[in-house]
Every structure is written in C-alpha cells, then in structure tokens.
Design brief:
Helix content is 54%, strand content 5%. With 214 residues, the chain is mainly α. The protein has a three-stranded antiparallel β-sheet with strand order 2-1-3. Helix 2 crosses helix 4 and helix 6 packs across helix 8.
C-alpha cells in the first residue's frame, strides 16, 4: 500500500491531500482538448514538478513551526500555506523560489526569519566597507540629475554622508545575513525529512524530472 503522506517531518505525516489542495489553489492543470501525446507528457512532467515544489513549501512551513516552538516564539497564525497562497501561475510553472514562497505565505517562516535577523551582528567595519565599495548607491539627487559617473572621480558633496546612510546599510546587511542563516537552517532542518515517491525535492537528481533553479 502506498503511503498516504507526502512527507514525514519529525515522524509527523503531511497528508498528500494538503499538497493537492495547495496545487488546486495556485495552478490549473488543464492541458486542453487538443493536446498531443507530447503535450500531455510535458504537462504530466510539469505537474509532477509542481507537486514536488508544493511539498517543499508545505514542509518548510512545518519545519518553521517546529523551530518557532523550540525558540519559544509566540505561535504563528494557525493557517496552512494552501489557504494563503496567491502565487501567480507563471511562478509555479517556472518552479519559483521555494523559500520565497514559504516566506511570503508561511507566518511561521516569517517569524523565524525575523528572529534570526534579531540575532545578526553586523560589524562597523562591514558597514563602512559596503559604503566605500558601493558609491553608486549613495549619489545625491542632484548628482543623479547631473549624470555624475560614480565610477570616476566623485566630489564628496555628490554622495550622501556616511552618517546619513549608516543605519540603512546596517539594516540591509542584517537582512541579508538573516536570509543566509535561514537558508542554512532549512538545509539542516530538512535533511531528515522523509518524502513519499513523487514528492521529492524538484532538484533531487534521484528522480528523472529533477530540475534545479535559483
């Protein structure tokens, strides 16, 4: 008897029906009445990859819920991702970012990311280095109107003072560091997830339809 779950997360089953509900929310499956056998095969492959993509988003939500509980964070809204999704069909068809989808639609994933961001310490030297290496990002409106080339000689008055942009840079770097921490957490957390056949990661090379995109 085939498994009735799409994946096991810490021995807790994620029902296959959750994945199917998820897919029915974001992507119509009709291939048209005059589809050729080649079209039908391509449509079947597309749906298999969509199923795997959807499984990953739901697994990420479940893992994030566990992580939030372990960190003592307030319980996120008790809403499953399939009830929140508004992802355009084109994003699903192109196997859009699993993590982006999870962060957009999982309260637990967002809560975890916010907690990770609070943990990030950005050294002053990193902030200053970013300012010095990205002059083009800090031209004043007047300099932009004059068409100042930030990669040639720039007058000090053409650039926003460091003190004025310091906090924004620190926040940008903290945000980027938190996302890297989230990616690393997810890689570790899903290492022990058990997937049913047909629900593997879309980029898993062990299945013939695998496709890895960033």
């Amino acid at each position: 008897m085939k498994e009735e779950y799409a994946a096991l997360v810490r021995d807790n089953p994620i029902p296959k029906q959750h994945v199917e509900t998820f897919l029915s929310t974001v992507a119509p499956r009709g291939a048209g009445n005059c589809a050729t056998s080649h079209d039908a095969a391509a449509q079947a492959r597309r749906h298999r990859q969509q199923r795997r993509w959807a499984t990953q988003v739901i697994v990420t939500d479940e893992l994030a819920r566990h992580a939030c509980a372990e960190r003592g964070l307030p319980p996120p809204d008790d809403v499953l991702p399939m009830h929140l999704l508004t992802i355009p069909e084109t994003d699903v068809a192109d196997l859009g970012s699993i993590i982006a989808a999870a962060l957009a639609h999982s309260p637990a994933a967002r809560a975890l990311l916010a907690d990770l961001e609070r943990e990030q310490h950005i050294p002053e030297t990193a902030v200053r280095d970013y300012y010095d290496r990205n002059t083009d990002r800090f031209l004043t409106p007047e300099a932009l109107r004059r068409g100042v080339d930030p990669f040639n000689t720039v007058e000090p008055s053409d650039i926003h003072p460091y003190a004025h942009v310091h906090d924004g840079i620190a926040q940008r770097l903290r945000h980027a560091a938190a996302r890297r921490a989230f990616f690393n957490w997810l890689d570790r957390a899903r290492a022990d997830v058990v997937y049913a056949e047909g629900h593997e990661h879309p980029g898993d090379p062990s299945h013939p339809d695998h496709e890895h995109r960033h």
